[in-house]
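FAQ
Q: What does a multi-component entry look like?
A: The components come first, one per line:
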Amino acid sequence: KNQVEQSPQSLIILEGKNCTLQCNYTVSPFSNLRWYKQDTGRGPVSLTIMTFSENTKSNGRYTATLDADTKQSSLHITASQLSDSASYICVVIPFTGNQFYFGTGTSLTVIP
Amino acid sequence: ETGVTQTPRHLVMGMTNKKSLKCEQHLGHNAMYWYKQSAKKPLELMFVYSLEERVENNSVPSRFSPECPNSSHLFLHLHTLQPEDSALYLCASSLGLAGGGPGGEQFFGPGTRLTVL
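Then the predicted structure of the entire assembly, as tokens:
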């Protein structure tokens, strides 16, 4: 069973609307949790990095939250743009070792 | 651009061919990684190099052979692949090993789309 589960698997929203993507994980303890954006045909690009002690981190219209008690993270996108259409991947990094735990991603499509 | 380049971007090969994927980073990083990305699956870490020494090999079949001649270059040599090896192969680099907190932020290349016939 994957230790990082993302939902929904795919999402379609209208341009200008907000949306929230979810990430539930079982990796414990962990050093940091990251959200990546991956455009079609490109490699992932880092959006936010949160240590286990942080609750929220923003990057422009992207805001990530972390609840270490419930082992949940969310990525909120405000005022979506067509260029936000991509796959969003949640990654949990444990304290030790080089095994990173990736979610399968949420595919977001923003339509005009 | 992320400062990590990969060539070729697309590769089609038969099961008996031998080919190599190349990755180069221009960021002065010390760690480099190979990942496999298949449809509907999480990224799979294949190999990790730190200061040109392999530090992780996640039970990858021997038909995949990595090489790191220096801290800026990483190769993945392919031979006698199977159709199920068709995937996007991503290279990444980081200043330190990625388990070390935000200082280990990874920068990914655009990937090589590999198709094995």
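Q: Is there any commentary attached?
A: Sometimes. For this entry: Chain A has no helices and eleven strands.
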